[in-house]
Amino acid sequence: MPAARAHTVPAEGRDQGPLRGDAEGRPVSGAVGLEVGQVLRESRTVRDEDIVAFADLVGDRGRHHLPDQGRAMAHGLFTASLATRIGGRVHFIARRMSWEFLRPVWSGDTITAEVTVRALSEARSGTALELDIEIVNQDGETVLRGESTGLIRH
């Protein structure tokens, strides 16, 4: 199996544009328009109905997640799922995910996921990616930090 070529550069100043190739501008086959340092964003306002639907789906109906007990707290994995929406946009298949839950997310909060491409490399079946993830609330406070590795198939 050929050795993987990984490229990393600081993420400052990069945003989600139609970018291609690695940090030195060389094409990375199957990168689907991604570039090291590129930041992808997605936002949503959390509603009681979202929290209840997620609770029903996964079976976690802890009282802190129920709106009839006061302001409902979103499930941690519900919050993390905002980053997976970005993964779906680029057809990312996750192999590993790691999350650190830093602050609660409440019904009525607006959260924004920022997913930064940390590394791209050729893999046998596609393009391997390493991603850094940060989700912030409407006050700019980080509520979740994480990372993921996986690939986009050719």
Instruction: Please report the number of helical segments.
Output: 2
The residue ranges in which pLDDT falls below 50 over 5 or more consecutive positions are 1-30
Report the span from N to C terminus.
17 Å
Give the mean pLDDT. Answer: 83
In angstroms, what is the radius of gyration? Answer: 17 Å
* Lateral strand order in the biggest sheet: 1-3-4-5-2
Strand content: 25-35%
Largest sheet: 5 strands, antiparallel
Alpha-beta classification: alpha+beta
Write down the overall geometry: elongated
Helix and strand element order? EHHEEEE
Residue share in helices?
10-25%
> How many E strands?
5
Detail the topology: elements first, then pairings.
Blueprint: E1 39-45, H1 48-58, H2 76-89, E2 93-101, E3 110-123, E4 126-136, E5 142-153
Antiparallel strand pairs: 1-3, 2-5, 3-4, 4-5
Overview of the molecule:
There is one protein chain. 16% of the residues lie in helices and 34% in strands. It has helices spanning 48-58, 76-89, and strands spanning 39-45, 93-101, 110-123, 126-136, 142-153. It has a five-stranded antiparallel beta sheet, with helices on one face. It is elongated and about 50 Å long. It starts with 38 loop residues before the first strand and ends with a strand. Residues 1-30 have low confidence and may be disordered.
